[in-house]
Design goal:
The complex is a heterodimer of chains A (280) and B (595). The radius of gyration of chain A is 21 Å and the shape is globular. Chain A is 12% helix and 44% strand. Chain A folds into 2 domains: 153 residues, 3-Layer(bba) Sandwich (Glucose Oxidase, domain 1); 64 residues, OB fold (Dihydrolipoamide Acetyltransferase, E2P), CATH 2.40.50.100. In chain A, β10 and β11 form a beta hairpin. Chain A is mainly beta. In chain B, the strands form 5 sheets. Chain B has an 8-stranded mixed β-sheet, sandwiched between helices. The longest helix of chain B has 25 residues. Chain B has 2 domains: 135 residues, Rossmann fold, CATH 3.40.50.360; 356 residues, no CATH class. Chain B has 15 helices and 26 strands. The chains are: A mainly beta (280), B alpha/beta (595). The interface between A and B is large, with 38 and 41 residues.
Chain lengths: 280, 595
Amino acid sequence: MSARRARPDLRLSRPLPPGATTLVREADRVTPETIIATGRSHRRVLRLPAGGAFELLKKPGDPVKAGETVAVTEELFGLGLRELVSPLDGVLETVNSRGTALVLAEGDDEIRALVPGVVAAVSSSEVVLTVHGEVVRGWFGLGEPVAAELWAAGELLTEAAVRLKLGPAVRGRIVLAESYVLPSVLPILAQLGAAGLICGGLDFGPLWELIGPGGPHPAGRGLPTFIVTDGFGVHRIRPETRRILARAEGRMVYAAGPMGGRLRFTGPPHAEVVVTVGDS
Amino acid sequence: MTTAAEPGVRPRFLPRSEAPTALLAGARAAYVFPVSPGRILGPARLVESRGRLPGPADLGPAESSPAWAVSAVDLPRVSIDGRSTLNAAAVRATVDAVLQAGATLAGPLLSEAVAVDLFVHELARQEADILILTQPIAGEKSRILTQALERQALGPRVLSIVYNGPPGYDSPELRTLKTCTFTTVESIVQGGRSNPGPTLEALGALVRDRLAARLARAGYPGVPCVSQGMAAARAAARLERNLGELLEPLGPDRGRTRTSSRVCLVVADPDRVEVFARTGGRLSVASAAFVGTASTRLLGNGRAGSRGTTAQGWLPDWGALARRLPLDLDLSDLANLIGTLLVEPWTLARGLGEACLGAALLEELLSEVTAGWTAADREAGGPAQARLFIAAGFGFDRLGSAGLAAHALVKGFQPGGVSVVAVDRGGALLVEAGAPDEDPPPGEAVGPPPGRPGTAGPRPGAATARPEAVAVIVSPLKAVHDWRRATTDPWAIVTVEGEDGASTARRLVPGTVTSLPLAPGRRAVLTVEPCHARLDFGAGPGRTWRGLVTGGTAGIILDGRGRPLTSPDSPSTRVAKERDVLAAFGALGKGDLGP
């Protein structure tokens, strides 16, 4: 959508997961690395075979590493064995009473400020920061808040351009595409370890195949945070927005989709990009 | 606001409750109506609210103090717990009660989670304000819920827990917690029969409290309010009582049994519909939404569906959607337009093309409701058996054409026999049904809070708002047309005899959709004589249907597309036929959509 001029007291809301512990107070000055809260927001469930034909290699409360075997189950009437592998770093939280599923939880997430600023308000559901900078409100977006260096990729209109331009250089960065991108870029960026994508537009049909309930990334899970600035279809980033982002190339920017865990199309909260100016 | 000076009476400021407006705050758009106490005086004014409750400043200085409000904004989210495979009747009845109270279904059934530990995780994810237990919980599940509430793992809100399962259950642990309230009500199923009253009353009180607090925060303290769901339930009851004004069979009407729905009121937003069907004094409700919980899945299957608790919504197949449109649209453009509509569901259709797409999306939602309903309640036959269909809500209004809205109802429900389709522009029926009542029934109390004088409103049945009839639809209950064949013998001879004695007859020919003029408000005797012994138009196979009907803007439509509806395979023929149908409904003029 549209970009707004800088306002010295831009207010940025950082939603917290239920049960999070806040670590800052009003008027505290924060840096991007400041931990403002801790909380547990990601869980995965592994199914166990009915009838107890399994052996747990970890007990509830034990830490686990991604790729580590947490249980062994019998297959083919005991003739074969299958390993259940943890998909995350965290703890084995619990095994249900019927012994049909185990729940793995990522360790307490450290929720960082991601931008320099001052804490304006604290509640159990959000921390509001006052930030000195400019904001670009997205047309649509998905994903957790991230802060990373903005990396301009130019146009990513074709498969050839994607192959040519995207490589290890995007790891940990937020990729800025000038206009329309193919939605298939998103899984590629996930594989390359990019932190996010900002683009002018993309087609909704193939995007829905990716992020819809039956898609491989429901509600955007497993994809980098992405913000579409101008709409579905072929759109170029508006000059006003482009000017703000051009000033941020090579610098750290903050980007956030509007949701966590549930598909929502309308805001607030909106997808947004914040380009900070100096320290608040 | 001041009144004109009367002899001997000093001008005075009117208190808020006497201001002559009523507010309808839909989930996507809001309307303001000029009213005298309890009655609507004129057409609604659309207020750009973007899904929020508009503040007094948004309404303008003359309209900043509504006399009452009907709202669908920020209603409590309800999660239902119950093993639907064992307790389907209770779950379905609870879903009905939730929608009728005007609350929002927060998500699929928690018991479908593969692990009991996920119960709490799912409850937090669904951001529930109310949890309804349709069966006792015990053991590990009860312990985990109690622990989560103790440490506020569900967030800062106080969770309202309502138990409506079999008698004898109590939870002292939950009763003593400060982070929740625990209420038990009579079982929602007693002796195999539905008993929704106590659940509805408890939910109604919770919804009313939330609405009152929300309105007070928005700048309307003490304004009497009711949820849109409750207003729609009342409106459906009034419509059922007044059905004879629009359609009155003069002979047998065998096509619809006593258990069939008589009135079907659809309240729609661009991305969701709620259907309120009245059947001989009984109300059934179902909803469907593209993103969120499609409750018809709960109704239809008694469970969350094959995708389990991760199900978040659905979108129709692009190709199927394109086949509903009277234009040849590239699938990529079609998908992008849908995405745009989902991102900005408060926008009006910018042209007939977008309006047709909006109508097609509503048709898909209504088809979903019908399919789920039929699967869940085969005896009643679902809303397609109704005689009167009314389109209400911003989802229809934004199309900009009553004919297009009516046609969406026909394609979504595919009514057979003789039916009437009508529209409720701006939601006037909902607003009038939501007016404060001096003696509200249990669970429907809408009056002001204690200590505040009420506003005199209409008595039930004293409604003045009427739906705008669009067309009387004539179609066989069941007949299939083969589009590859040229025009065949007629299915029926339809005769209209006006009040002046003038009579007009026309053939209902398969594969065609034509109209007979009957001006809005004019009464006529309609006779439908089947030409085949197997064809049933509501009076039984081969028997003549006769009844009194009232005209609408599109008159009487003779629908020869068959039931279930089919369309030609050839894209060009299909588009041409679709345009003919829309023209018959008065939604399309010559050259409106280009070649």
